[in-house]
Amino acid sequence: MIKLYTSPSCSSCRKVKKYFEKYNIKYEEKNIFTSPISREDIFKMLVKSENGFEDIISTRSKVFKEKGVSLYDMKTQDLIDFIIKNPSVLKRPIIVTDYEIQVGYNDDDIELFLPPEVRDLDCEHCFKPHEPNEECDYVKSIKFSK
């Protein structure tokens, strides 16, 4: 099951949800402000990340700057406690599956969440999935340029 960590004001979060709904991809949403994030949630993110805390924490966030904390000066448990108390430091959205994590919304990277039967519908022109009989941007641009 895909777990999607979001916040209400996040436009990238809305894009991911819209994308998942378009392709009937089931997910469980967790609003990081209304549903407390757990240690287990954070560990699942860290285990699947390439760069640990650097991948999931926004060091440019207001709280991070105000508190004057450093990723490199804190112990793992202290950073986890900090995230639990200050969930706004998390980058958003964070998409977690049993095997991988994606942070943020990226048109190309989001396709890895497509089920294989949908992924096989990739267009021969633009190599992106779209509805059957729907013209892709590439085909539209050729018609427009003629």
Which secondary structure elements does this structure contain, and how are they paired or packed?
Layout: E1 2-6, H1 11-22, E2 27-31, H2 39-48, H3 53-56, H4 62-67, H5 76-85, E3 94-96, E4 101-103, H6 116-119, H7 137-145
Parallel strand pairs: 1-2
Antiparallel strand pairs: 1-3, 3-4
Q: How many DSSP H or I helices?
A: 7
For the record, give the distance between the C-alpha atoms at the N and C termini, rounded to a whole number: 46 Å
Summed over residues and divided by their number, the pLDDT gives a mean of 85
For the sheet with most strands, the description reads: 4 strands, mixed
Strand order, sheet with most strands: 2-1-3-4
Oligomer: single chain
How many beta-strand elements?
A: 4
Strand content: 5-15%
Globally, the shape reads: elongated
Poorly predicted regions are none
Helix content: 25-40%
Structural class: alpha+beta
Which sequence of SSEs, written as H and E, runs from N to C?
EHEHHHHEEHH
The value of Rg in angstroms is 18 Å
Please explain how this structure is put together:
It is a single chain. The protein is an alpha+beta fold and 146 residues long. The protein contains seven helices and four strands; from the N terminus they run E-H-E-H-H-H-H-E-E-H-H. Strand 1, helix 1 and strand 2 form a beta-alpha-beta unit. The longest helix has 12 residues, at 11-22. The protein is elongated, with a radius of gyration of 18 Å. The model has no long low-confidence stretch (mean pLDDT 85).
